[in-house]
Design a protein that fits this description.
With about 350 residues, the chain is mainly α. It folds into two domains: about 5-105; about 115-280, no CATH class. The chain has 16 helices and no strands. The chain is elongated, with a radius of gyration of 35 Å.
Length: about 350
Amino acid sequence: MDIWSILNIPPTKDIAKIKSAYAKQAKLYHPEEQPEEFKALQKAYKTALQSAKQKEKETSAAKSAQMDGQTEESSAKSAQASMQSEDVHAEVSEAGESMDASMQESGEEEQTYDFSDVDVYGYRERFFEQFFLFIKNPYLQNRVEAWDLFLNQKEYRQLFTIAKFRMNFVRTVCDESGWHRKTLLYFKRFLAQFHAADNMPPDGKRETAFFLFRFKQFPLPGSPLFLINRFWTKDGRQFQEHMLTKVQDLTGRSVDLSRKDDLDKYIRIYLNYGRTNEGRMKYLRDEQMQLRMMVTSFSIILLIYFGIMGAHAIEQRAETKRESGRMEYFMEEADDVATEQYDGLLL
């Protein structure tokens, strides 16, 4: 196989260039949708990287031998190794063929993905793209079962083993609105799975200790769940019906999102649709947020109104009580005066 055409770069010993090329190409092939192309890309990447590292070791050894003043024979070998390293394309192609041959002899097929730093970057970009699609759909944003399916995908769980990624996730969650407390508590439990004594951050603080993240988990008053877990606009309801129809066509029966398999199909269809229709999803999200702000504003106005009316009622009751007290006082005074006058007449 021609690994350099797969990586779309000329032959090179530069590891940074190989990783950069792999990062660009990895975005073009999804491991589930194009598994053969993705495996070929990974094989080319590993072969090129292995060869580059080997040449780097040989070059370092040659330089070390020269600095230590080795014999002329060792110097000649180093020079020969340096000359051989120039023909990268030929040697790496041979390495790739030998790797193919060894795989064919063993009969083993690669089953796992290489999550190097470059590969992780590709998954990280796709993760946040789908994350923002999730929160644009009110049927998914606060559905714990949906997040459980989404976050527990193998490639995404691998991302959460990285402390920096977990912190970025928490900060992104805190930047968004519309979360329900039970969803945030689920995120906290999910993140805790990746905490261990050997991966404690240098400052000793976990991402779950982030102040704003903890603050959002407090049981503060907010919009009722039935107001924020569905589309209330006409366009939103039509969109939801369209998604459910697609799932129904796939399953051949009525859709029940409380069922795990139906929910999984709904998520996959929705994410595929949202990836190619970001403009419409943004419009539906903005429309939903405007309606939510209107409901919130109206609720605040009602709270203020009832608060004022309540305070006025309390003041009226207090005034009535004070007036009643004054009347009782005057009545007692009048009784005392009448008693004195009556006693005077008797005398």
